[in-house]
């Protein structure tokens, strides 16, 4: 029997994602009140979790919701993925 699919799960199941303070660091960079940045990011990306939205639209939503320019949004997205993917959980 040939393998037809491989399913990977991220988000705390197969890896450990400790709080690194990444969101707070971006909050400080953008001079936003405590907790505000996370709220804005969730508003910007929320639709992407529920719908098929192009990455370019998510990027634009992020810029509009947070006030970041393209370079900042790209840097944040890179930081976000590094933070979100975490490290493998040891056996």
From TrEMBL:
Query: Sorted alphabetically, which InterPro entries does this protein's record hold?
Result: HAD-like_sf, HAD_sf, PGP-like_dom2
Signal peptide bounds: none
Membrane spanning segments where? none
Q: What's this protein's name?
A: Haloacid dehalogenase
Q: What is the originating organism of this protein?
A: Dictyobacter vulcani
Phylogenetic lineage? Bacteria, Bacillati, Chloroflexota, Ktedonobacteria, Ktedonobacterales
């Amino acid at each position: 029997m040939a393998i037809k699919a491989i399913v990977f799960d991220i988000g705390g199941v197969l890896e450990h994602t400790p709080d690194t303070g990444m969101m707070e660091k971006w909050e400080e960079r953008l001079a936003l009140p405590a907790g505000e940045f996370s709220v804005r990011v969730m508003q910007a990306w929320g639709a992407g979790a529920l719908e098929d939205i192009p990455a370019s639209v998510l990027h634009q939503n992020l810029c509009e919701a947070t006030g970041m320019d393209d370079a900042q949004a790209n840097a944040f997205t890179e930081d976000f993925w590094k933070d979100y993917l975490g490290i493998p959980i040891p056996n």
